[in-house]
Amino acid sequence: MASQHRSNECGGVDSGISTTPLPEPDDLLDTVGLYCPVPIIRTAARIRGMERGQVLEVLSDDRVILIDMPAWCRSASHEYLGRFEEKGELHLFVRKGCKSASHDRRGG
Fold first, then answer.
1. Which domains are assigned to the chain?
2. Any idea which residues carry the catalytic annotation?
């Protein structure tokens, strides 16, 4: 089983390994072949159209996203749920917003 990094409510990342399975995503965003900052820009655009509480799975091969995604989730009040790697691709999971969209002025 791939190691998974879990987060606390609203994006506080725990560095420990969790055996809790990641949720089934409501949507999938493929950013393979795209590099910083494009995966985060596309994630923000996609999540804007989702309902609060829905989960987005982001595929990426840019390892910088391992730093960028948790930081972006904290700044935009989304929940970083964790990640796993399979065949050189990172699968990251984000739950849309702890705040309503009307309170989120950071574009996501």
1. 5-103 (3.30.110.40)
2. 36
State percent of the chain over pLDDT 90. 70
Distances from the Cα of 19 to the Cα of 2, 5, 44, 65, 96, angstroms:
9, 9, 28, 22, 22
Token pair listed for 18: 């969790």
Strand 55-60 with 27-30, pairing: parallel
- Judged on CB neighbours under 10 Å (0-12, 13-18, 19+), 27 is middle
Query: Considering the entire predicted model, what is its pTM?
Result: 0.75
Q: By the 8 A CB rule, do 47 and 108 touch?
A: yes
* DSSP 8-class letter at 51: P
The answer to whether the CB of 57 falls within 8 A of the CB of 23 is no
Model pLDDT for residues 13-64, shown as the tens digit of each residue: 443 233 578 999 999 999 999 999 999 999 999 999 999 999 999 999 999 9
